[in-house]
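Action item from last week, closing it out:
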Amino acid sequence: MRLSTWLPATAIAAASTVMIPVLAARPLDATLAAGVFPPWWSESEIIDAAARAGAVLATGTLPFVVIIRAEGGDAARRLSDQGALFSLDPAGAAMCARIQR
């Protein structure tokens, strides 16, 4: 069996394995969200972008995960507008962030 035969199916399965939990973990509270920013951004770029989206509540053990509170709501959209790749419910991001309240 050739590599080119099974590689596309393996890539789709791997992407699905990662994306299904991510999409299922969408923020439940519109005012709170954990934004996952591009890992190649600097820490200052990430914090600046997150701060433009809302009040920064926590930074991650993974430096590209930031939890914010957006008092007006729509925290996930605000993070996306500032460059976050996707947003998670902060409870689901507990492995990635140290909550500092």
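Closing note: The chain has three helices and five strands.
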